[in-house]
Amino acid sequence: MDRDVFILSAASDAGSAGAIHTALEQADVDPARVQDIVFGLEDSTYLPDVEGLVHDAGLTCPFVFVSSGMRAVFFSAQSILSGDLDIVMVASLAESASAALLLVSPDAVGRYNLMPRARLAARSLVGTGSALRAAGIPAEDVAVSKTGESGALSVKELLEELEQGQSQWGMLSIGDSALLVERI
Q1: Can you give the C-alpha Rg of the chain in angstroms?
Q2: Distances (CA, A) of 17 to 61, 70, 151
Q3: CA 59 to CA 130: how far, in whole Å?
Q4: N or C, fewer C-beta in 10 Å, the chain?
């Protein structure tokens, strides 16, 4: 079993369907290849017509909701790490700005000749220290540390900061959850 999960693209838009469509377009991935979409509920009072939203984005795959955007990233990564899926979309459901991430396995990268932007190096539900220990990375190697509110949108912002600064390592924390990202 491979131990890597790659981020192919990250996009934001006023609506979830637009963010999903843009993330697919940026990565040049056929929507039919997406095996699952995991929505993070950023605001439990906002629940649009998700079936229509998935259809509008051009996807035909199953979808599921989880309690937060960061958990959506974790859940999707675990589906890839377990070997169950190769291409998963993570999207936020928010009334204002929405974001989408396209996550893939190393097999999908090789099979479809895809160019990842970053690698999810470690994730933790008990803080940044645990994520750093899991990856074997000292805290001083992390050039960008960000505290966010929305999983997919915050990951997109972290990627942009890493790319602008030509930095290798970035850490996102939301509450006790932490995600260590390596820019490729």
Answers
A1: 15
A2: 14, 19, 17
A3: 35
A4: N
